[in-house]
């Protein structure tokens, strides 16, 4: 008689599976809680203690860890020595293993999780059984995912046995599962022990969805999320309407979210190719949108717009006049939904607006960049300016109004690809120069876009000026105040150029490269 061992924490669907096994004369063996559930459902089930000859001990820390179990799992059926060994010891083969693990992830995601509770939720016996069965995959069908129960039931009921490929696929799934489980434990303990950049990086991501393609149609792609990805991240966003998100949509929406989360006041960000083409802040979301729109009415076309307040009817109406790929906001009013859902292709996403770098389960938020043969990983750039960072280096002090505009432009320039220059006026960008190989080139693009609006505007630069040319160009364009990190050996030249033009310039001592 064949044997199945069932030991599951998540008991979804397990009664139906056990019924099918029993229907086909397969003996079911189970551990405490699973045994009780199956017995209560009227299913004949053997207690694991009758197999091991031991009671479950130490609050379940040891229940299946026994040669009578592992011999039955690991014996290669075609190996005479193996079979003689287990037979001599009165160990019976186990042909099916259905196991899922203690809920470690759910435990560490509980607010204020207790360390002892987390440790107790590290499953030992379950992964051991899964790995043993998966190693012996040709002889043991191993099921870790309740989504695979239907196929096992079908195999039994319809006489379509699991194929070699299916059994190998089930085993591969097990090793992905146990590897991810251990990765999560190691990440948690890495955080608890305060190790910032461990000697070995063990991370795990879960698939959210396959994507139609990557950055270009000839590239395959999928979207994965961090376990417990928080609600305020793009992975935690909820899609209310529209076509499936694309690779570029997700990347752009992420960029828009990162910028809009910089602001506490009502703010709107329009994004093209991960760079902001318009950012506006105001007392209400409609005005903020109009500022972001007017910043660059050309580039916003086909763009992604993030708002940090509920989208109301008036703002929705205005946005519906344009072709946009995505609108992302904490919420949409009913009227706004009625207006925007008329646009079939427009994607509507809700995301909570907790500032970036908010609650994280597995430690400080980081950014990663895949390079050939490796991975660059760094802390997220969440450095905010304090009063102590602002150093006026020119003869002229910025006015209060200029300082406000400088701080606004500084928040934006941090999110623009380097070399980055942002030209801004009253709480809106008017020119953005992104991703240029030289700084003055980025400035020229920003001035050209700003046109006459550059006169009397302010300028932010993500890194220092290597020479005075950008300040001279700014003076010619009519810029009145500049914010930049400082730190060039030629700072004195830039300061002199600013003084000559009557420009007020502040150094922050903070650089915001973004590549
Ligand atoms: N210690 C052991 O020998 C052991 N054997 C199985 N488990 C786990 O116990 C859980 C099922 O327990 P129960 O059937 O009592 O509800 C499963 O998640 C299984 O992975 C064990 N628990 C933890 O390590």
How would you state the average pLDDT, rounded? 95
What shape does the CA trace take? elongated
List unreliable stretches of 5+ residues: none
Main beta sheet: 6 strands, mixed
- Estimate percent helicity: 25-40%
Our measurement of the CA-to-CA distance between the termini, rounded to an integer number of angstroms, reads 63 Å
Q: What fraction strand?
A: 15-25%
**Structural class computed from helices and strand pairing:** alpha/beta
Radius of gyration: 30 Å
Small-molecule binders: the ligand NC(=O)c1ncn([C@@H]2O[C@H](COP(=O)(O)O)[C@@H](O)[C@H]2O)c1NC=O
Specify the oligomeric state: single chain
Number of helical segments? 18
- What is the topology, as strand order, of the major beta sheet? 8-13-12-11-9-10
Task: Please give the number of β-strands.
Answer: 21
Features:
elongated, 18 helices, alpha/beta, binds ligand FAI, 6-stranded mixed sheet, 515 residues
Can you describe what's shown?
The structure is a single chain. With 515 residues, the chain is α/β, with parallel strands linked by helices. It has helices spanning 14-23, 32-40, 48-52, 67-74, 80-88, 104-108, 115-120, 125-135, 149-157, 164-192, 247-260, 285-295, 313-320, 334-340, 400-413, 439-450, 469-477, 491-501, and strands at 3-8, 27-30, 46-47, 96-100, 141-143, 206-211, 221-225, 238-241, 267-272, 275-281, 303-307, 324-329, 347-350, 366-371, 374-379, 391-392, 421-425, 428-433, 458-461, 481-484, 504-507. The strands form 5 sheets. The chain has a 6-stranded mixed sheet. A 6-stranded mixed sheet has the order 16-21-20-19-17-18, with helices on both faces. A 5-stranded parallel sheet has the order 3-2-1-4-5, with helices on both faces. The ligand NC(=O)c1ncn([C@@H]2O[C@H](COP(=O)(O)O)[C@@H](O)[C@H]2O)c1NC=O is lined by residues 7-9, 31-34, 60-65, 99-102, 123-126.
